[in-house]
Amino acid sequence: MSISEPRTADAASELARRENKLGQTIRLKGAATERNLMQATLRLLKDHSPLDLSVHRIAREAGTSPATFYNYFKSVKEVILALVQTLHEPYVRDVLPTLQGPWQDAIEDHVRRFVLAYFAFWDKHRRLLAVRNLEADLGDQEFIDRRIDMAQPVVDALCERFRSTGSRKKVPKAQAWAQAVVCCAAMEEMFSYPPEAYRSDVPATPEDVVEAQISIIVGLLQRNQGM
């Protein structure tokens, strides 16, 4: 994962309106410094617990000073939150569309695209997502909010898929939403394990887990259709 520069004029304009901790407008050079600090944090998180990170360690990794770090972030937590926030756009871009549009035939093919997109996103961003979920599970409200806000569009879209099964009677929203939450939570949990975490005495492979999740979602859709 990399922290990219703004892609559009609107994004660049929005960036120019931001200020650092000293109240100064963040221009191109400042934005580059901010991205450098975030990239340094991301590199450290690949091999270290967030508990092992410090402002001095991040600044050293970024080739700058702690004073420069504090120009942009007030704490290690804040820079990690900023990294987590960068995941929202690619998640919505890459995963959400697989649940949208007509699903007239070959339901399993549509579900497969969704689950594989979900898996690919987790495979690419696994470490940062795991840190986010760890902090959320420990009760940090800001990480809880980031986790819920990011998941909400996909959970809602999957909920509508469970409701709109083509049967004469729609599945109650509470039931469909609960099904969607359980499926997404199960994928988060199972896809959080890297391939090397599957020991030789474990009979299933990551591919088996993907296929199982596809089967579960297809089964729920078929069950709802028959209600």
Describe this structure in words.
There is one protein chain. The protein folds into two domains: 9-76, Tetracycline Repressor, domain 2, CATH 1.10.357.10; 88-225, Tetracycline Repressor, domain 2, CATH 1.10.357. The protein contains ten helices and no strands. With 227 residues, the protein is mainly α.
The CATH class of the largest domain is identified as Mainly Alpha
**CATH fold-level assignment of the largest domain:** Tetracycline Repressor, domain 2
Radius of gyration: 20 Å
Proportion of residues in extended strands: under 5%
Gap between N and C termini = 43 Å
**Biggest β-sheet, characterized?**
none
Number of helices: 10
Helix/strand structural class: mainly alpha
What assembly state would you assign to the polypeptide chains in this entry?
single chain
List the keywords.
single chain, 227 residues, mainly alpha, Tetracycline Repressor, domain 2, 2 domains, elongated
Which helices and strands appear, and what pairs or packs with what?
Layout lengths: L8 H8 L11 H20 L7 H8 L3 H7 L3 H10 L2 H7 L12 H31 L3 H23 L9 H19 L14 H20 L2
Helix pairs in contact: 2-3, 2-5, 3-4, 7-8, 7-10, 8-9, 9-10
Quick rundown:
The protein has 227 residues and is mainly alpha-helical. It folds into two domains: 9-76, Orthogonal Bundle (Tetracycline Repressor, domain 2), CATH 1.10.357.10; 88-225, Tetracycline Repressor, domain 2 (Orthogonal Bundle).
